[in-house]
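Thread: "does anyone have the structure for this chain?"

Original post by V.I.:
We have the sequence but no experimental structure in hand. Need at least a predicted one for the grant figures.
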Amino acid sequence: MAINLLRRISLRTQIFISMILLVFLACLLILVATFFQYQNESIDYNIFRLNRKENQLTKQIDYLVEKNDLLKKSDSIWAQYEEEFRAVIKIHNVNYSVFNLEGNPLFTSFLPLKIIANNYALEEDFLKALLTNSDGRILEKNNDEIGKFQSSYSLLKDSFGDPYGVLFFPYFEDVSFSENELNTFLQSLYQIYLLMLVVAIIMAYFISKYISRSLETFREKIDQTGLLKENEKIELKNAPRDIASLINSYNKMIDELEKSATLLARTQREQAWQEMAKQVAHEIKNPLTPMRLSVQSFQRRFSDDDPNNAKKIDEFSQILLEQIDTMSDVANAFSDFATLPKPKLVKSDLVEITRRSLEIFEGDSIKFKTSDEEIRLRLDRTQWIRVTTNIIQNALQAVRQGQLPKIKVTIKKGDKTVKISFADNGIGIPKAIQSKVFEPKFTTKTKGMGLGLGIVKNIIDSHNGQIEYTTSEKGTTLVITLKL
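Reply from O.Q.:
Generated one for you, tokens below.
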């Protein structure tokens, strides 16, 4: 959907939007990169700060343990030196706790809730994991009622590298400075990017206008170009090289178009006259042949002494009149196609008219089916009979020689329209003439003028309807749609 919408937008607008989007995306990417850069720097800074404070704290505890000879001593002995351990809190401005290798507390100033809930002792599984860890350290992230902080559990070791206790050190990140610095920087960046965006919009407007100016002139000329018009060439000064090349091609096309239009008009007139002359000659020639044969036969059969002369003359006259009527029908058909009378639309019963139109055809080859016994709509009765008759005649003539015709006529009423379908079992419409089936062309049948479907199409158009067809080697189905 977005691609279709983009195709509807003019080139100038596309250039304008593209330039704005490029600047906007560049600004957005820099902002995102800056934000993540500050985040990473803040993380690195806090890790460095945690390690530094923990190292200082470890050295201080090791000093107190060695000074007071507290290695492998009970918690009651450690309690005697609690003031010294608590003084460390004030010196380094941190909280910490110390546990023995069994996980029991030796000194506590701050503990997370999970240790308090475990009777102020480290869990056995956690202690085993810490002792088996190659780094001798485990970092955890905590989130309780006092806020977010990192917990560092590290092994305390004597001068021989043997562990004698566990140091718990809670580290609370100092993010106020980095956040203030980031906010200040981003505010300055916002102002700069806003100014850049305004400048980019102004520049994009003028650049897109300059680029599309030549194309707009070219488009206007193309819109005015037509085969039957007096076309003007494009004269554009200071056009870019690509546009100038396009204009030169257009001007050459105009010269060729004028030549083609002149030749086409002359050729069309000649073909129209040739087509009409051939068609009329062909259709008039059909009745002339039986008329000639009738005259020759009458000459051979006529005798002055024959008492049946009156009857022979009457039969001969009847044959000639029939052929003359056929020639008159040919002339009328061409005349009707050229100037089809305007339909006289009156409220009529489509089902009744169609049924009566089909009754003139003998035999059981036509099956009629309707969804409603009465469907009334504005219709020209005479012209609709003509439509039905022409289509049925075409369907009968399309059946293969020796095959029984089977024609199905169906009327189906919808909410706003009614569809009338004519299905036959003929040979279908050849692919070569499918696009011209409703045009007045030579017929492929042995008789007929090839004007039937052309007249049908004109009548349906005058009724504001539609006519469509599907065809195959098994037959053709014509569907007419009329508005209720």
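V.I.: this helps a lot. The first strand starts at residue 97 and ends at 99.
O.Q.: and The chain has a mean pLDDT of 76.
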